[in-house]
Design brief:
By secondary structure, the protein is mainly α. It is 76% helix and 0% strand. It contains five helices and no strands. α1 (2-80) runs antiparallel to α3 (102-137) and α1 crosses α4 (141-148).
Amino acid sequence: MKGFIISFLLLLTVIGVVIIKVINLNNTLVRQVNTIEAKFKDNQQIYSSIRIKIEQSGLVANEYAEQVIRAFNESISNRYGGGGAQGAMLWIKEQNPNIDPSVYTKIQQLVQAEFGKFEANQTTLLDMGRTYKDTISTFPNNIIASILGYDKEKIEPYMTILVSEDAKQDYSTGTMTSPNTFGKPTQ
């Protein structure tokens, strides 16, 4: 009788440990999937914010350039009248028009900083996906995860990584092309 009780208690302990393991793994996987989904949405928000900031900065730079040109034109017209190019050339000699290049430097810094933040988030998302896949692929988690319905497809909608067309082309050909820094045709 004593042996039966010990065996029964041992069986209950094993069952309890298995149940705790299943519950713990389920909770871990739920947290991982939720975190991956949240990071994906965060990436979407960051990317959207980057585009808006860059577009707004470009609009500010364009407006600034237009205002400078308008001010130059009005100044020439007011000082030298509508009398033609001679007066304008004298004015340009006297005061060389200059659009402050720091406006464009600030835009470049904004682009670099924002895309750096986005790149870091993309990398974090990939790491989260790898951790999830490792968790559901290793023994004995793979058995339990399969029974609970966790698979790699559960996170695939969130693993979309944005890459440029040039990067896709380079990877498909296996050849790295030089970036087209100034928008000039490559040779």
